[in-house]
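hey can u run this one w/ protoporphyrin IX containing FE bound, need the structure tokens asap thx
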Amino acid sequence: MSQTEKTGRRQRRSGAVLLEFLGSMNLAITLLVAIAIASVVGTVLQQNEPYNNYIMKFGPFWFEVFKSLGLFDIYAAPWFLLLLGFLLISTSVCVYRNTPAIIRDMRHFRLGVQEKSLRAFHHRDEWRSPDPAAPLADTLAKRLRRHGYRVRHRQFEGYQMVAAMRGGTSRLGYILSHLSIVVICIGGLLDGNLPLRLAEWRGELKVETRDLAVSQIPPESTLGTDNSSFRGSVTIPEGSRADFVFLGMRDGYLLQKLPFTVALEAFRIEHYPSGMPKSFESDLVIIDEARGEPLRKTIAVNHPWVYKGYAIYQSSFSDGGSRLQLQAWPLDRPATEPLRIDAVVNESSRLSTPRGEYGLEIIDFKPFNVFPVEEAGSKKFNNYGPSVVFKLRAANGEAREYVNYQMPLMVEGRPFLLSGMRATPAEEYRYLHIPLDSDGGIKRFLRFLALAQEKGRISQVAHQQALNELGLTEADPLYRDFTSSMSSLVGLFVEHGIDALVELAEKNVPEEKRNEALSSYIKVVQGVLGTLYVELLREEGVDVAAGIDEQQALYFDEVLNAFSLLGPYGSPLLLRLQQYEHVEASGLQITRAPGQNIVYLGCVMLMAGVFFMFYLHHRRLWLRIEEREGQTHILFAAAAHRERGDFDSEFARLRGDLRHSSSAVLSRI
Amino acid sequence: MSVTTETLSHEFDTTPFLRRLSVLDWLWALLVVAGTVAAHRLYSEWMDGYEVGILYGSAAALVWLGWGWKPMRGFSVAVALLSLAAIGLYGGELARGESNFFLKFLISSQSAIMWMSALYVMATVTYIFALIAGSGFSGKVASAMTWSASVMGSVGLMVRWRESYLMGADIGHIPVSNLYEVFILFAVMTALLYLTYERRYNNRAIGAFVLTVISAAVGFILWYAFEREAHHIQPLVPALQSYWMKIHVPANFVGYGAFALAAMLGVAYLLMERRPDGLLARRLPTLEVLDDIMYKAIALGFAFFTVATVLGAMWAAEAWGGYWSWDPKETWALIVWLNYAAWLHLRLTKGWRGKPLAWWAIVGLFVTLFAFVGVNMFLSGLHSYGSL
Ligand code: HEM
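ok here u go:
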């Protein structure tokens, strides 16, 4: 034997071994389980978040490890694709190896099967009949046909052979369902973003992570209209248009150009009484130069518009740059007239305040806010009117987020203006409740705040209390201590809130006396501010000769509560919405998926195949009919592909029927 | 020995299926068609073309089910009559649910669901008693209870459907839209699947196992209603307002129900296998039969789950703009599907039948459970409608 022949055979053998391995059931099961487990990881770990979130969650070391494993975008990680690829190959090999045999099996009746083999079948029976063989074979063949079998009948030398089968389509089910996996994978591959990833890998494409205006996005992050499959999104404000979408990629995006322009004429949204969106829809116009006439159509959730293979979906909505007119009261000089600020949602502006320059970023605006309220045991919904969410960014870069509600909130029958604050989006809002005047304004609150900030007025009150209540004289050494600590307590409280008093007590007083000290601090502050409050009322022309009434007392407590939170509130300004012009934006998703129909074809094959495999059973029957010693001997044998419990009873029924039809004389030879 | 031809001849009727149907069968078909046409004419205002298609498709499926599995007919008639009674008693006013005696205590959706819950739990106890005592009579009582519970559960869902429209035409929707509603569907579906096998294999011992998992679901339903007030009908978010929901969700729950059934058979298998001559071995079918039923349940579940996942993908393509987004719920559906695909293949490889597969089916239930409850509880994504 020559050398080349040997290696040839060895190659063939190792090729066969490879095929065997790739098409083996064990590999298939391993792959199915491995893909399932990998998929779990991708659902437990939120995918494609900004990288900073991961760094915060896992720390820099594990972040790097996970990133290099592709865990943040697992379904596009090379190793995951490799697993899918293996499944694809394994299934293909499996189909390739089994199909010829299956087709043969489906078509051939196996008339030539030997008597000896028939006798070895588990399901078999024999009996005798007085009828001659040839007509009997015809009768029995007919009988089997009536049972739904396809039948072949052939005369051999000395005996008749009837072979029948049924449910061969179940074997087709195997081919259909397994081939469908290949078809679905191919369709999915066409719609996936593998080409983009390859382009990125070759350095032709760069994912943009900066927040740029569309016109500034560099060409290496822009895709032309020749990209055949993508899934992107774009937000279009009412009255605007776009001829692009953004494709999210890991922690950044790419700009995808469209061959037409989409304009949003109007956006409509309806709500349930609970404030939950009931439906939303967009009146769109497509302006396509290749067409001329603009096209109009309204899309809604679950009702997309497919144009030239591009499908446009209604996916979300947001503020499209509502124009707001705000009033701002500097909290450090509350007596002055409010500033007027004109702002636009999603834009930022600069404000100069007594505490320095601030950046004002308007994040969101809602024309109404509905919350459930429990009333007499039943749930009702209240509308709290418009709200504005904004950020104030100090010069040092520190920012806090605020949400201001426009309409008063009633707490135990008394009206408050509500403003929430949080330092990071991960926190819950903490709310400042500003009590409202009887006319619904905040003038009195601001005047009171101005008074409380006036050092002179406070010293004056302190002076009077020292003289009148403690009977001190100005010459008394205690006088100075008393008045100055009084002023500083009130100043601390108004500027930094109750926390400052707690801190003071912690610093100056031993632990066991702290509570006592704190309550005396509070009493002092209450006393001074109470005096100022009475003076304020008197200045407003309220008759306080007979003391103040309950409402006014409540108001005082509420103001004190608000003052105590002003410090942590941390804003130099109090903003209130005055007017607005609502502009909505529609969030569209635009996709191009040329593989979709291939995937659907695969799905249909899969469903049909699975049902064929489970609910049709491939069964074969043979009747060997032979005349011997004046009698006709019948040998009946049957086989079912992967025998199931049910075949026993079917076989029993068939046997009974055939015996009956052949006027069987003996049950068994 | 010669076999008399007469004794055998009745057994192998070869007349074609349609001609084998009795007058009763045709009456049944007529009844279903008449009811469907009536429903179509009455409610066509609320249906689009697809939904009309689904209505007639379901009618055809029901006729076919009733022909193939006769008890389905009595069951459907009972559900229909009670539901119609409730609709009649409501007469267009939701408030009558509080004032009318029958509605308040029997067939308003919430009452019917409470009856369902009580009956399933009682059936569980009775099945267990029947299993231990070997009492055939108790077994029959347990079956009757299971049937009644399933009737009440189905009535609860039907009436809830109506109630949602009484709350407001724009709120009305088929009650398969949140976790509370689908848990009821799950209980009913699992019970009905079980009842088919009970009849086919003429064995009620399995009921003790299957009804246990249904009782667990009932426990969840009660907790969810009383602790979380989840039984209030909520309007639908826009993404769910689609005819797809009507086919996607029920198909899914045939799958879930079948998988749960298979898992409980796995439990029965393992317990019986440990004591080959114990009580269970005397009451349950043989291990081979248990294995076979488990296989059939998983095959059925797998087939329907495949359909449901495909329908889900098609719906996703219409609602979210992509047939596959690796959304957690989608991904978990794939995981469940891969898991049972592996199970089916494992069964074809040598040496894995029996114990390992029974264990795998039990583990499969937990995987399934996570896909259907856990995802909503722990993971967020596009499917976040049914959060706890
Ligand atoms: C996602 C991938 C796959 C799915 C969903 C799938 C699904 C199925 C299903 C449902 C059955 C029927 C089992 C039964 O009747 O009990 C089956 C049978 C089978 N599968 Fe797969 N399969 C997959 C991949 C593979 C692969 C990679 C192989 C290669 C070894 C394979 C080989 C087989 C074989 C040989 C049968 C038996 C067919 C018969 O004799 O009728 N399958 N498959």
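The first helix of chain B runs from residue 5 to 9. anyway lmk if its weird
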